[in-house]
Specification:
It is built from 8 helices and 12 strands. The protein is α+β, with helices and mostly antiparallel strands. Strands 1-2-3-4-5-6 form a 6-stranded mixed β-sheet, covered by helices on one side. Strands 10-9-8-11 form a 4-stranded mixed β-sheet. The longest helix has 15 residues, at about 90-100.
Amino acid sequence: MNIFESLDTQHEKSIYTFMDSHANTYHMKMSKSFFQPHQQEQYFLKLYTSCQNKILCVGYIYFYVNLDQKESAFIGEYVKPEYRFQGLGNLLLSSWVRLCLDEELQILTTYKKQRKPFLLYLLKTFDFEIPDHTLYEKSFDTIWICKNMLDVKQKCLFFKSALQSIHFQNSKIRYADNYVILNSNYADKSLDELKQLQEEKPHIPNIEILNQVLLSRKYYIEDKEAAYQKVLEVHRKFKK
């Protein structure tokens, strides 16, 4: 019996313990619940720590699992605002990847309605990609992920599509996650062309272009071995 089958909806199972550079201890527990609208079980990895003699859940990640197809689909994750920018989102995501690969699931993907650009960028750091890479240049919906060199807490984006930019500007996600929408005269360029422009002359001062994403597309893990090595790099930063 694997870990997914051993769970019930009434109890959580402890799976990992971590410690950060400030000696804060985090316990990761796994649980599941039945999601009535989709008529299937959702799985959760929840991160707990102690604060003022209370046990707090500071973040979680949730996903689907199809054991017959040996597949897991990432749905989303959340970290409490006061615990962000400490690497915990990365820790949650890497733990999901590790858990699935350790349990010999063969397909790791994203739920198709993923709408958070930086979350897709984070997934790409673990070797997730869309099957057809040429869509980034073909599509009018490409979004560039950027970093503000003067304020690392700022999530910066610019869009190929002006209409999509307006829609995102007025979305709940933009306000909830504090995105900053950049204006750019170079939205028709490819990622490589933009990075070349940045090297030659900073056309967008203090902004580093990181990568590109497409919303509402399914991303799949491309190289499981490379992804697992990246997972171990993250986990090594949190002494177990």
